[in-house]
Amino acid sequence: METRIFGKTGAKITFITMGGCGLGYIDQSEANKAVKLAMDHGINMIDVAPTYGNAEIRLNPWIEKYRNKFFLSEKTLKRKKNGAWRQLNKSLEKLGTSYFDLYQFHAVSSMEELDQILGE
């Protein structure tokens, strides 16, 4: 699987990544098959979000066991700094990890929203 360096981080991530939305709407057995297939093909980046049903819970066993093999991306729709932090911590707990490699503010549509998110 082709990889690329992610910005200035030095992290090598696969050109093809796995979007985790579908994991949230299938049972654990099917989620296991999907994640294993992605890993078997060398995919090392997975993107999830709290709005993806049970995706974080479905991915948890894989992150707990293989965290060092994944570049884990998460996003939030929260528009207040405190809400985003609360959601980030809740997602970390659901996934069974202490960090995300990338945390995104999803669907920001104005500078006012960005100011609100990053504000005090």
Largest sheet: 4 strands, parallel
What is the distance, rounded to the nearest whole angstrom, between the alpha carbons of the first and last residues?
A: 42 Å
Describe the strand arrangement of the main beta sheet, using strand numbers: 3-4-5-6
What global shape is seen? globular
Q: What's the mean pLDDT score?
A: 94
- Strand segment count: 6
Quick rundown:
The protein has 120 residues and is of the alpha/beta class. The chain has 4 helices and 6 strands. It has one domain (3-118): TIM Barrel (Alpha-Beta Barrel).
Provide tags for this entry.
alpha/beta; 120 residues; globular; two-stranded antiparallel sheet; NADP_OxRdtase_dom; 4-stranded parallel sheet; 4 helices; AKR2_Oxidoreductase; NADP-dependent oxidoreductase domain-containing protein; NAD(P)_OxRdtase_dom_sf; TIM Barrel
Description of the molecule:
- The chain has 120 residues and is of the alpha/beta class.
- The chain has a single domain, classed as NADP-dependent oxidoreductase domain (TIM Barrel, Alpha-Beta Barrel), CATH 3.20.20.100.
- It is built from four helices and six strands; from the N terminus they run E-E-E-H-E-H-E-H-E-H.
- The chain has helices spanning 28-40, 55-66, 81-95, 111-118, and strands at 3-5, 12-14, 18-19, 45-48, 71-76, 102-105.
- Strands 3-4-5-6 form a four-stranded parallel beta sheet, with helices on one face. A two-stranded antiparallel ribbon has the order 1-2.
- The longest helix is centred in the C-terminal third of the chain and has 15 residues, at 81-95.
- The protein is globular, with a radius of gyration of 15 Å.
- The N and C termini lie far apart (42 Å).
- The mean pLDDT is 94.
